[in-house]
Amino acid sequence: MNLKAANIFGYKKYWAQRFGPAPELPMSLAEMQQLGWDACDIILVTGDAYVDHPSFGMAVIGRVLEAQGFRVGIISQPDWHGVADFKKLGAPKLFFGVTGGNMDSMVNRYTADRKIRSNDAYTADGAAGKRPDRAVNVYAHRCREAYKQVPVIIGGIEASLRRIAHYDYWSDTVRKSVLLDSKADLLVYGNAERQIVEIAHRLAKGESIAELKGIRGTVHYVKQVPLGWMEKDSSAIDKPGAVISHPNPYQAEPACDSGPIQDKDERVISFKPIANLQRMQSVIRLPDYEAVKDDPVMYAHASRVMHGETNPGNARALIQRHGDREVWINPPPIPLTTAEMDGVFDLPYSRLPHSYYGKANVPAFEMIQHSVLIMRGCFGGCSFCSITEHEGRIIQNRSEDSIIREIEVIRDTSPNFTGHISDLGGPTANMWRLACKDSDIEAACRKPSCVYPGICQNLNTDQTPLIKLYRRARKLPGIKKIFIASGLRYDIAVETPEYVRELVTHHVGGYLKIAPEHTEQGPLSKMMKPGMGTYDRFKQMFDKFSREAGKEQYLIPYFIAAHPGTEDLDMLNLALWLKRNGFRADQVQAFLPSPMSIATAMYHSGKDTLHKVSRNSPNIAIPKGIRQRRLHKAFLRYHDPENWPLLRQALKEMGRADLIGNGKQHLVPSFQPRGSLDDTGKKPVKTQVFKTKYTGARGKAGKGYGDKH
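Request: output the structure for the sequence above.
Response:
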């Protein structure tokens, strides 16, 4: 299969290139006039404060389009109650590009318990309430009201994760594709550079938005399946249509027998050479929106089919009917090459918030201003994570020289740089330059994860290049310390012990955050995470190399409460593990069913969508009720007196009253401290003041244990 694509920097530049790059993309007519513009070619609308930094999606898309010669304006956090803010830059010549921001607007505003957050890290001074719920829908509607004739294109993570009919946790309903709800003309999903550059140039040449069909990484309407395309009907669970056989990533040669070979899960895993030609012109029909909105099992089936088409090397197009409209989902975009990634990150970002904000603090910027993103994508496949659905599982790498150049730019231009790089990472800390050993196998593979249930034999896990990068970066003049703050895949790290030594000796600032997520096999098997044996192996290395370096350092493990597949007993066992190991979590993370993730399909359907879904599939444990979710979080904070009444009641119901008492072997005391709640959880009591000599790792490993959501 041909995975070649046009270089995003290989297009002939648009005529407006004569204006050159702007110091910062304009947010007002006055700034446009200073640049000599009479109009914008493209206006990007975002729910975030505009920070001209490569960690902010709108800055990246804006600068990439600017590099093509287009005049790009930014409308940041507009007042959505009217259209005035959407008109302040005038009508764009080509299109509006709309995003909710770096975060999904619903995740940004609400906690996992649906409580409104008190701040927004992507807003000046952290102010809350600067964006609407479901911002993509609202902004797209306002753009249409402002200028009806201008095409509206939606993108970013909020649109990306809602490209098909999806379960919406906040309303507890299945909603239509956001393409319909927003009334946009086109949806761009995943990392958008390749798609948006092609779209802009084709519109600039006079094509209409309705003509832009078949672009990978986009979603649009069709009236019917085009001529020449073969449709596979997967709209039913029990009677699947004709199956086009898939490549077997573990065979050196394609199977040549007349019939498909199926695995025990009934997924075809071998193919004939002619099948590639068939696949490129085949489309899978998902169950209609009307079928999945009221049928959780059908929804689970649709989710499973969709997740089978995520590898750009072999993914097929999808089609889903919504009423009288057909939504066509093209295969994922071709990943950027290293040269293209370098080009994106070498663009002339100011690396600062727009001057409009003055001295206001944008918390997200303060966190990442001195960090460097070295790669994109993740092949971990964790079922609760949306990275694979958005960025893909093929790692897109920057070159070592490009990374070093960015560190030097930070050192030489950042007004408050003190010599410390806060992170060299990305979705993960240590997947840079890791890939399948064979590109043909990689293009054919249909596994959801390269590291679960174990590391694939075809995966290159050598992290020697990363060691070399760390050493080169540390030697740069003016660089005092480089921290690694991105999530570490410790199951991969242990495959290169010298990498662990390098990390522990030079790049840990006392604490290293890692994410086992759980200790028990039930939830781990639904998360697609490794068992605690790998954690123990990594901890042994971490402790050994810390001692050799003469440093006192601690691991901070993250865990998830209330994940699908988790029983109350699983959380009790996790709490006992935490106590045995002296961990006291300051904050805890409860599972949040983000749109389109595998774990969300489990949450909604009660079925394990990692295996074939049918009406007779066994149900799995789904902690949904408020009390049970509170209990699971309480187990993670077993040391908090406010949780003791709930835990005591639960332990009695579970037949584990032996864990209630005042000894070190007990999980919770039998008494309540003065001023806290009694066992009814309602009224304060006046009993003895709580005192204990047990401190565990609080103030050490417990410090800084934050809430990811």
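Residues 240-275, 683-709 have pLDDT under 50 and may be disordered.
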